[in-house]
Amino acid sequence: MSESVPGPAPEVFAPHEAPVSPPQASEEVEFVQLLTPEGERVEHPDYSFDLDDDAIKGFYRDMVLVRRIDSEATALQRQGELGLWASLLGQEAAQIGSGRALNDRDMVFPTYREHGVAWCQGVDPLRLLGLFRGVDQGGWDPKDNNFHLYTIVIGAQTLHATGYAMGQQRDHAIGDAENGEATIAYFGDGASSQGDVNEAFIWSSVFNAPVVFFCQNNQWAISEPIDRQTRIPLYQRAAGFGFPGVRVDGNDVLATYAVTQQALKRAREGSGPSLIEAYTYRMGAHTTSDDPTKYRLNEDLEHWKLKDPIERVHAYLARHAGVDHDFFDQVEADADKIAAELRDGCLALPDPVLTDFFKHVYVEETPQLAEQRDQFAAYAASFEGEG
Amino acid sequence: MTKITLGKAINAGLRAAMEKDPKVVVMGEDIGKLGGVFRVTEGLQKDFGEDRVIDTPLAESGIIGTAVGLALRGYRPVCEIQFDGFVFPAYDQIINQVAKMHYRSEGRIKMPVVIRIPYGGGIGAVEHHSESPETLFAHVPGLKVVSCGDPVDAYWMIQQAISSDDPVVFFEPKRRYHEKAELDESVPPVQPLHQAKVVREGTDATLFCYGPMVKTCLQAAEAAVEDGRNLEVVDLRTIAPLDLATIFASVKKTRRALVVHEAPLSLGTGSEIAARVTEECFYHLEAPVLRVTGYDTPYPPSRMEDDYLPDLDRVLDGVDRVMEY
After folding, report:
1. Which of A163, A200, A366 sits opposite B70 (nearest CB)?
2. Which of A21, A29, A205, A266, CA to CA, is 20 to 30 A from B65?
3. Domains in chain B, please, with CATH?
4. pTM for the whole structure
5. In b/e form, how buried is each residue of B198-228, taking b as 16+ CB within 10 angstroms?
6. What residue spans carry the region label Disordered (chain A) (predicted)?
7. Interchain proximity A163–B71, CB inside 8 Å
């Protein structure tokens, strides 16, 4: 430890947990796991996975397709077709498990990396590319898929989720664990330091709002490791706000499903918010503009490769569920087909026209803006016919 | 018909809006049992319940951020920021979320959020309680910014703001909360929300003002009669967008313009008016557009605020300058 690291935190911060430093950087802290990295099912006293092997095959397919979509988008960025891409590589289980636990009335507030959750909600992957290609700033209608627009300002969406959940309360849409409504807010370990996230915790707690806070702790906020954000495991923060928190193996799709399902039921039945810390790892760069070789060790990456979220499900299905290579081959073929469609769709996205976007600033356009739009249109038209 | 104060007029306007539309919710700090530190929401929680009149935690970003979520759910939140200087923790949510949501969603999402802010000085308050940050919002595409100057406008403008499908930052002149006027609720409003009004007809020069400065400018105009000057006074009411049609018409009539506001001089509302009037009324002007405003300092300790704020004498001094140019 360098001298800049502060001494042990005073006991008052976590009287029930000693010592408090530095367990957050280690998997030694107990988490919920139902499928080991080797593909073995394990029991947990509080959580169980209650779906059959067909459902697990579905999760497998989801994760492979989403990883393929993600890698295609990265390739498109490398070829200059996207300005940026934020890869979800390594976080497929966290997103598919939690996403598949949602009912068709639950509402999702994503960051900009929830491509897997978007997939679960039925958002066309091509729509996700618009923001990154620079043709729009969110090309889908949140109402169509109960999936809000990507939010780039870190943590801001957790307050939106909380307000939306307060609306669900006022609409009397809660009270039933299966058929009620809940809201899920995604955010990362870096966002846990944001004021907005902490305010969202307070608000949802004091108003008992039906929010599931789903934190993907992927260990890195661009170049800053988790120990720059917290001295205690993130899930333990929930206790201070007055609601349950749980750490789950974020690379275990069965566990993320089970834990999220329970938290959603709790929210839908009116028992209030909860925090899930999905303990995972950002296998790629923060975005395509980032260079992780400058700040983290390759050994860590190798270590986490052994915990791959897809490999363990493949192992389980092949060894214990009698799934043969026809299924896996078909999933690969489906993935290639979707990637090809995504590529073609991306290249065919029409370039936007600035005059159209003037119209979206206000519901009721101001005379000033109408004047500027007309001026731009006239200016642009003055070049027509020029070579 | 009875006389009503500006503060009570906003209360009555909020009540009318809440009765008309069950989706209107009011939220802020101390607005429930206390009725707000200025009592503007007095009695609303008793009559509409805690689900619609929400005492919030003390977190301004939380107030606006959750209002965004409520709006996404179909509600029409009216947020109270307790004092002008306390809005800044919410600035990100206002600028990046409230203002841009309609744009970035290409019109799919509306943000009918009203942000009420008591603003301005002259009440002997401690720091952060007397500021005029309207330009910091008026500069932001996606927001609309208004300020009421009298009780009748207060009553109607708050309802018009709540009806607006665009977000509106609603600046309330706190030192005028106790000003009284006759209000007949059965007479519909004359102006739509984003229209200025000529509150005093005149011929020699126009005073453009809004919020707390409307009364000051009307008093100055009366005093100027003794000097043989017939001043027009325009209550702008809407700062974003400015009602340029009314502004230009008045300048073309009087040929001289003075903009008065409490906010600092540089890059203030007066700067935009001066620029636009110069563009549109260049050959009508007998003098450059002048400004009488707060100075480019932080709001001073209150024992000095009478020197900082534009008052009758400073406005008349400005009138002298614009007349004698």
Report:
1. A163
2. A266
3. 2-183 (3.40.50.970), 197-324 (3.40.50.920)
4. 0.95
5. ebbebebbbbbbbbbbbbbbbebbebbeeee
6. 1-24
7. yes
